[in-house]
Every structure is written in C-alpha cells, then in structure tokens.
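Help wanted!
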Amino acid sequence: MTLSKSQYIRGLQCHKSLWLYKNRPELRSPIDAQTQSLFKSGDSVGELAKELFPDGTEIAFTPDDFQGMITKTKELIERGQEVIYEATFSQNGIFAMADILVKNGSSWDMYEVKSSTHVKEYHTNDASIQWFALSSVINLNRAFIVHINNRYVREKSLDVHGLFTIVDVTDVVKENQSLIPKKLDAIEKMLKRQMPVVDIGAHCHDPFRCDFYEHCHAHIPYPSIFNLYWLRADKKYALYQQGIVHYKDLPKEQNLTKTQSIQIETFNRQKPYIDKGIIKTFLNDISYPINFFDFETFQNAIPRFENQRSYEQIPFQYSLHILHEDGELQHKEFLADEQQDPREALIKHMLADITPKGSIIAYNKGFEMGVIRRLAEFSPESASSLLALNERFIDLIVPFRNLGYYHPNFHGSFSLKSVLPALFPNDKELDYKALDIQDGGMAMDTFANLHLLKDKNQREKIRADLLAYCKLDTLAMVRIWEKLRKEVKSLPKQPILLS
Ligand code: SF4
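Answered by r_m:
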C-alpha cells in the first residue's frame, strides 16, 4: 500500500472517507468555485514562500512519472543541492512531497507552507507523516510550518519575510512518530476489507467538511434537527445518535430556546409567527431618506496593494437604494476598476452618494461597519466622515433575529438568502438563482480574479453580472422593509401565528 500525504490525512479524519475515495470516487461532491479559488490561492502562497529560501531547484510535478520525481530528488541530494522545492519521496508506504527542504549542516530542515493564519492540528499531522516518510531517506533536523501572518501590512513592495510566520513544530512532529505505524497498519487492513461502517458525526466537519458529506447525509430529511437554530454540531449529532432526526422526535423535556420552539411550531403549523411590537420598535428607529446599503469585498492572502493587510476585507463595490419620504426610490452603485486599488475611489463615491442625513440600513451591519472602520484607518483625511456613517447604521436582520417575524421556511437561518425567498417565494425580480453571480462568495472570487482576465468583452460581461448581483442585495432589503411595514399596519398588536 502507498498512500499520499493527503490520503493519510483523509484516513485520519474518517476511514470510510478514505475507503470511498479509493473505491467509489464518483460519490464525491463536485468541488465548488470557492474551494477551487482557495486551492489557487494556496498555490500562489506556496510559490511565494519559496522566496524565503531562494536559489533552490524545483522538482517538476509529473503525475505520470512519480518515479522520475523521486529519482530527480535523490540526484539533487547527492549532488549537494542546498534548497529543494517539492522534494519527492516514497518511503514507508507514504508518497510525500516536501514543500521546501533546506540543507542544515549534514542534515535537512523541512518546511511545509500553509495559506492559513495559524498552525492547526492537521498541519502538524501533515508534517508528521512527511517526516515519517523522509526520515528513513535523509537526516532531518527540524520541521517548520510556514503560514500567513495576518498582521502583515504591505508597504510599496511585498516583504516575504513579513508576510510569512515560521513556526517550529519539531517537538510535536517527533512525538507523533511512534503513533504513525499503528495508524498506517489500521488503514492498510481497513482498505483490504469491505467499506467500513462509520456513521455520520462531528468528524464529518473536522478538520474539513468531507467531500462525501452529501452522500453520507442523504438519509437526513429537510428540515431536521440539523436545521435547528443555534445548536452546536456535536449536540445535533448527539440527538441523531439517539434516533432523533425529525422535529417531532424531540422529547418533551428537551430544552429548546425560544427561537427553536418558534421554529418548530411555525413549521408544524406552516404559518409565520409575527410580533408586531418588535417590528414596530425596529421601524420607529428608521428615518428618511433611508439608505439601503451593501458592500462586496475580496480578500487576498498575499496583499496586492500598498497598505493592505493579509486577508483584509477590501471593498470593491457597493449598491445603494435610497428611499425618500415621498416614495421616490433611487439607485446608486459603484464598481471599482479591477486593475487598481479600489479603496480611494470607493470612499469618494460612497461619501458623495449616501445622503447626509437619514438611516443607513444593512443586513448584518457589523460587516459593513467593520469595513468602514478599516477604510477610516486607510484614509485618515476621510476618517471623520466615514466614522460618522457608522453612527447611522441600522441592522435589518434585527426584527428577524429578535423574533418579530419568523417564517416556517427560514429553517433556522436569518441570512438574507434564507429570509428573502421565504418572504417572496415566487417573485422573479428577487430571485438570485436567475443571476449569473448568486452569492457574496462568488462575487468575491470573481472580482479577485478579474484583473487576470485578458478578454475585454468577458470582463465587461462579468462587471455587469457583479452590478446586477449587488443591486439585488439592496433591492431585497427595500422589499423586506416594505413587507415589515405592511405587516405592522395590517396586524393586531399581540404576537400571532398567521392563519
Ligand atoms: S461524510 Fe462523514 S461518515 Fe461519510 S465519509 Fe465523510 S467523514 Fe466519513
């Protein structure tokens, strides 16, 4: 048996996952665009980290000739090469490629590069299995994890030494060595047998959401106790282990929060729960002209622009619907030039577009306010105007989260993408599925890569898609606000389940 490093890590998460991967790979869920984008970002980070140890020689990845990669690595070591990237070994049943190997006297230091911002347990497991394979071929001195320093702020040029943090994990890697043969032995025996029986559990999410998740959870109905609001995954799986899956299975003595009780009650009766008092209190705080506002942002592990922090949310677009007291609804928007730092132009337009008075409504205002705070740090000359905006924000999620309005089709989520289709199920104007860009993650990845696209027509089409997506976010808020107003006018004061 020979396992790649990632197959070993998969086996540590779940034997069944590894068995399925080897025997039924067609059952994996397709890789989504966001995961693909994460992989791409990981590749760029790995590439850049090589600059920490320059003048190395890279073993080119040749998937149809692993033996050639192993032979080339051996040759470089024998020739006295000091730095090797992607050094490849197949030893002790493990096929491993070390990101960076650096000669240190008569032995070698091993560096594993990760695009996360701290060392996680699976990183040390990863380094441990690498060490296990390499240590029988070469003398190893220390093992390090190289990860992104999320406090790094780029100056004019990129400083790779500031961008990366190097953590010595040798002690834990050495401690793990004695456990590995037993784990490999168990994996080897498991792979020779029928598919192991492993029930779903918290391990399906830890350290990654398993790519057989949909396959293994296919027997779970929707909705189920897995949709209960604000319940930790381990508690949901504990209920599942007791045979509790449907809401009706929950025992009477089960401690439920008010939101969970209303969630179940509205589902059973298929009628919304409305508390007019809560909605009214919320609406009373809003003043005209009402600015319905939403940012789109992107993040880079490797900052592109001066004064950009690693993984900082950089706003590149906003949509703004302004509702005036006389009923006039205006729309304004901004989408940055993808080739430039968007922040200065965005600040200028935003300060001109948002009305000097009146409320600013966002959905989950903490995000918008956080982005504005960072913009104020970026642009001290606009800081006071920017921070003054934060005084005027009102959060449209509040009447839902505070149970002013609970619809059975929220299914335990108050996100805009859950609330909107529940309130307006057949409204084509408010249907994200009709758009090419359907969520914030897609918008983020699309814009982050737009500057790399050569075709002008394609870029224009994508820019139009981005504008349409962000516009819908704020139009959705307008319609939700109108709906809440209507409910307040038409309902009696007491909380009710609508008949
Ligand atoms: S979904 Fe869970 S049980 Fe199924 S293979 Fe993945 S980790 Fe194992």
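OP: Thanks! One thing I noticed: The mean pLDDT is 95.
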